Amino acid sequence: MAIAYLLGKGSSKGLRTKLNIPILLVLSILPDIDIVYDFLTGSDIHRGPPHSIVVAALAFIPIFVIYRKKAIPYFLALISHPLIGDFFIGGKLQLFWPFSNNIYGFQNISIFSTLNIALELTLFVIATLILYKSGDWKAFFTSNKTNLVLIIPIATVLLPSTIGYPFSKSLLITEPPLALAHLFYLMLFSIAIIKTLTAIYKKRFHPPLSKGSILG
Ligand SMILES: [Zn+2]
């Protein structure tokens, strides 16, 4: 998510387009939907078709047609997941599925290696500083229906990693520094969802008095 934010932020500045940070962040973790699929079905397609840049490009065709250059930061966020994050850490990606079933990427740096943890934390700190400096953090403290997409990373990544289910152990025990970063995003995303749901609830059940009602 940190890499996607930095890429999305940089490209949207260059293109002078507006950015929806929650949607950008969700796109960056979307390829890992295959973990959920594997978990539910007992299959083993992780780092398969949903990590293919061919699939990503095809899925983005209608989005590029409608939004044109505005779509570029979001596309970069999506492909940064297989092409940067997963490519260097762990590898074994079916990058060109369905044209090729070959797997790509470096396979000698483990997710739990000191190098990866140091890299992840450095990127997290840089992304957080820019999030703060640019005022982009405010997106998480404003009610906006698109914030509800953040339920996806909460349910699929952040809650499982911090409470430890369905993995064997919580990151709080295995990698406390990484757990802190996960807890930070969990808190930020939860605030955005609570803010939005509260606003929707208020609008639905306590609409503001219109002119001509009791106050006349
Ligand atoms: Zn992945």
Rg over alpha carbons: 19 Å
Give the biggest sheet.
none
Strand count: 0
SSE string, helices as H and strands as E: HHHHHHHHH
Helix content: 55-70%
Q: Count of helices?
A: 9
Number of domains: 1
Bound molecules: zinc ion
In the predicted model, the low-confidence regions spanning at least 5 consecutive residues are none
**What fraction strand?**
under 5%
Alpha carbon gap, first and last residue: 51 Å
The coarse overall form would be globular
Q: Pairing-aware structural class of the strands and helices? A: mainly alpha
**Would you tell me the overall average pLDDT?**
91
Structure description:
This protein has 9 helices and no strands. The chain is an all-alpha fold. It has one domain. Zinc ion binds next to helix 5. Zinc ion is lined by residues 31-32, 47, 51, 81, 86.
Descriptive tags:
216 residues, 0% strand, globular
What would you say about this model in short?
By secondary structure, this protein is mostly helical. 61% of the residues lie in helices and 0% in strands.
Q: What order do the helices and strands come in, and which of them pair?
A:
Elements: H1 2-15, H2 21-29, H3 33-41, H4 53-67, H5 72-88, H6 114-134, H7 151-163, H8 171-174, H9 176-205
Helix pairs in contact: 1-2, 1-5, 1-6, 2-5, 4-5, 7-9
Zinc ion binds at residues 31-32, 47, 51, 81, 86.
